Amino acid sequence: MGLPNGVHHLALNTGDMKAQVDFFTEVLGAELKALYWMHGTNGYFHGFLELNEHSYIAFVQAPAGAVEASNPPVPEKASLNHVAFNVGSEEKLLAMRDRIRSHGIVVVGPLDHGFCKSIYFGGPEGLRLELSTNDEGIDERAWIDPEVVAKCGMTEADVARYKTPAAYRDQGGKVAQPPLRPDKPHPMWRGDVLNRVLKMTDEEVTRTMSETTPPVNVAPRRAPAMAK
After folding, report:
1. Which end of the chain has less Cβ packing within 10 Å, N or C?
2. Is residue 175 part of a domain?
3. Domain contains 210
4. Domain containing 110: what range?
5. Number of domains into which the chain is organized
6. Looking at the domain assignment, is residue 218 inside a domain?
């Protein structure tokens, strides 16, 4: 049975592909591997940033006013487009297609996207789901389209930087908290809670905001006995 073994790619909607690629390459160190016109759409483009050869963060940008054929309109930014889970081979991909169909759920594919093969289906509450497999990573030489690069307002120097982000020297957790700025992304907290958090040291945040007690009290697991 070819059960999913991780997330192949998490695809998010964006209204600014360049800003997202800037952030995920410079701040998080991911590498740009693909930027191209999205298959089967009219004017959408797709970007893939590599976490490892089988796991990516992806972005989908729609042309202004675009509506997918299936409707409703695709949100412009900061929302989930779809999730693709990874399986280890095409054989396992087909095994999962059988499993999903055996539950009465429609599955489309596999479709061959050149760097991966995928099947498509839906989940509860309108989730858009995909299962994907690829033998090796994406060859950025083939999958970064100069036309889409220009469409995103990127230069050749930008692309070189995105493909090979600058190395970062670890500072052992000693970098001080910067001031909160309106031109920088903000964390998940807002208002008074965020103001209170920003007045704490990192050690205070860990000590006062952590919660390690599980909901069920159980005895610790015993280590397996060593074979004699």
Report:
1. C
2. no
3. no
4. 6-163
5. 1
6. no
Q: Which residue has the tokens 């499993």?
A: 99
Spacing of C-alpha 77 from chain mean position: 14
pTM of the predicted protein model: 0.87
CATH code for position 54: 3.10.180.10
Which phi and psi (to 5°) does residue 102 adopt? Answer: -65, -15
pLDDT digits (tens, 9 = 90+) for 115-138: 999 999 999 999 999 999 999 999
Q: What is the pLDDT of residues 161-194, one digit of tens each?
A: 999 999 999 999 999 999 999 999 999 888 999 9
Say which residues have a Cβ less than 8 Å from residue 90's Cβ, sequence separation at least 6. Answer: 110, 117, 133
168, part of any domain: no
Long-range CB contacts for residues 42-45, cutoff 8 Å, separation at least 24? 42/66, 45/17, 45/148, 45/151, 45/152
